[in-house]
Amino acid sequence: MSAMTDTGSPHGQAPAGPSRTGSGAGRGRGTGLRLRGMKWLIWRQHRAAYWTLLATTLVAVAVMVYERDQMVTYLEGYGWPRLKPGWEERFDRVSLGLFAQLIGFTPIVIGVFLGAPLLAGDLESGTAKLVTTQSAGRVRWLTTKLGVTALVVGVSTAALSAAFTWWWSPVKSSSSVMDWSDGTAFDSSGPVPVGLTLLTLIGGVAIGMLLRRTLLSMVVTLGFAVAVQVVWSRFRMSLGDAVTVNTSKGVGDDAFPKLPDSAHVLDQSYVTSSGDHIGWGSCSEATEKATNACLDKAQVVGWHIEYIPITQMSSMQWLGTSLLLALTAGVTAFVVLWGRKRVV
User: Fold this and answer.
1) Neighbours of 76 (CB within 10 A)
2) Number of C-alpha atoms within 13 angstroms, CB side, residue 292?
3) What is the distance between the alpha carbons of residues 174 and 187, in angstroms, rounded to a whole number?
4) β-strand partners of 278
5) Beta-carbon neighbour count of residue 260 at 10 Å?
6) How many CB atoms lie within 10 A of CB 213?
7) Residue 264 has what DSSP assignment?
8) Residue 81: is the preceding peptide bond cis (ω within 30°)?
9) pLDDT tens-digit readout, 296-343
10) How far apart are CA 239 and CA 255, in angstroms?
11) Model's pTM, two decimal places?
12) Which of 226, 158, 191 shows the shortest CA–CA distance to 313?
C-alpha cells in the first residue's frame, strides 16, 4: 500500500490522459478533423447539418455512379459511343430526370434550412452576443462561419454536379433524352449548381441576419430562392451567342435549313424578297393552296432561323456562374460589413 500514492499510480507517476494533450487537441480529434479555435466551434455548432449534407452527397454520388455504369452497359449494346438507331426507344430517362430535378432543388433546400438559420438562430438565442464578447471579434466569427459553411456546401454541390454531368455525358447530344437548354439539365450540370447554391445560401444568411428570427427568415429565404430561380430561368439563354441562318430556296419541307443536333431555336420566321421577316405562322391557312397563295402574295423566298448550338453550353454555364459568384461575393461583403457593427 505504501508504494501507491493518492493518484492511484505506482511510484507516484501521473497517469497518461487527456491532460497531456490539452483540451484543444482532444476536441480536434473528436470531430474527426484537426480543427482549432473558431473553426472547431463553428463545426461543432453546425456539425449535424454539415454531416447530413456530406452523407447525402456521398450516397447520391454513389447512386449516380452505379446508374451511369448501368446506362453505359445498355448503350454498349447499341454500339456506344457511335450509337445505332433505336437505342432511345427503351432508354430509361426517369432516373436521369429525377436526379436532375433533385439537384435543381438543392439551392432552395440549402438556402432555407442551412443559410437562413445560420445567423438568425444565433441572434435569436443570444449565442452571437456570447461568442462576440469573447476574444474572437465579430468579423472573425462571421468570416469563419461563412467560410466553413460555404466550403462544405461548395464541395457537396460540386460533387453532385460532377457526378451528374459525367452520368449524362454519353447521351448529352440527344434532345429526346434531355433538352440541354431546359433548366432541368442546364442548372444541374457543370458549375451552375455551385453558383446557384452559394448565392441562395449567402442570401439566406443575409436575410437571417437582418430579420433575426429563424422561422421568419426561412420563409422569406424560400421566397428569395424561388425568385432567384425564376430570374435565372429567364436569363440563362441570353448568355449564348445566337447563330443566324437565312435561306432563299423556298419554305417547303426540303428547304428548311439543317441545324446542328440539339440546337436551341430562338427565332424562326420567313424571309421575303425585300429582306423583311414575317412570322412563320402568318400564312397558316386551312388548305395547302391557300397557304401557297399567302406565301406568294407576301413574296416569301426562304427561312430566317436564329439558334444556339449545344457547343456553347459549357461557356454559357461558366459565364453565368461567374455572374452568380460575383453576386454572392457582393452579398458576402454586405454581411461582413453590416455584421461588423450591427450583428448583435
Assistant:
1) 12
2) 4
3) 17
4) 270
5) 12
6) 15
7) E
8) yes
9) 888 889 999 999 999 999 999 999 999 999 999 999 999 999 888 766
10) 30
11) 0.84
12) 191
